[in-house]
Amino acid sequence: MSVYLLRRLFQSLLVMLAMSVIVFVGVYAIGDPVEILISPDADQIERERAIKALGLDLPLWMQYLSFLGNALRGDLGRSFVFNEPALQLILQRMPATLELAFGAMFIALLIGLPLGLYAGLKPNSMGSKVIMTGSILGFSLPTFWVGLMLIMVFAVQLGWLPSTGRGPTVDVFGLRWSFLTWDGLRHLAMPALNLALFKISLVIRLTRAGVRETMLMDYVKFARAKGLSPARVTYVHVFKNILIPVVTVVGLELGSTIAFSVVTESVFAWPGMGKLIIDSINVLDRPVIVAYLMIIVLMFITINLLVDLAYSALDPRVRLENK
């Protein structure tokens, strides 16, 4: 296992290096932030002074080498707009996005697993057909429209939940978290549910397909022949085996939820990384954009590694193959 971890870490470093080149070149080759940040009435001397202050007077390869050297020291540049370290800006917004993403995945698993299990065990029942029809709606409905409907119903009509923003926060290990307060949970409920809608449908379909396939396996038939109770067959022999593809897909979906929660954060005015990156793109704040993308790449690599480790823990065949 140690050799496997070392190999994966080496591969992760290569991926990070390759992505740093792609992200840096892709972002720095688009547009000119000076045109946005400097007044149109500024003369040529002021423009040249601003270009030099932002480090844009150097060739692109020298800018990249400077960025890479600073990144190895934990410095991803300073924001053109806020004049603060880009990494600090992102880390200030990261807890909001993380609690939104983890809240959405928790809701998806809490609702999707039992519904998918029921739909797989009783595929011809009316309840199963209703569940599968609902999962199609979950895939089809646009996220922004669902968010607006949630606000209209639960915030405007019923007045149960706040419509936008983030609730009061509690400082834990230097990070501000809102889910630890009751009002924070009320603010989190609607955006997390909105973000979880697609994931619920995905978990339902994965779980149902896994149950239908596993129920036909010989070890399940043998467990039934031994006289084990249906509950034991379901939760010991079926449920554990269907978790392997579910854990794999849900782990990858967690990364995409963190990276692409922009629409939900915009609809509910949630002060997370997604809203920050949209604002940064509008003003071509290159250091913030590059820092955000590099952090997202690092998150995806880390989540992939954790998913592989969880996969090997759930499936003994993978452990033997790694050995």
TrEMBL record:
Principal location: membrane
Alphabetical list of SUPFAM superfamilies matching this protein: MetI-like
Signal peptide boundaries: none
A Gene Ontology cellular-component term: plasma membrane
Membrane topology listed for this record: Multi-pass membrane protein
Domain ABC transmembrane type-1: 94-307
PROSITE patterns hit by this protein: ABC_TM1
Transmembrane keyword on record: yes
Membrane-spanning intervals of the chain: 12-31, 100-118, 130-156, 188-207, 242-269, 289-314
Keyword Amino-acid biosynthesis on entry: no
InterPro entries: BPD_transp_1_N, MetI-like, MetI-like_sf
Keywords (A to Z) from UniProt: Cell membrane, Membrane, Transmembrane, Transmembrane helix, Transport
Gene3D superfamilies: MetI-like
GO BP field: transmembrane transport
Location within or outside the cell: Cell membrane
Family under the similarity heading: Belongs to the binding-protein-dependent transport system permease family.
Protein name: ABC transporter permease
Organism this protein belongs to: Teichococcus deserti
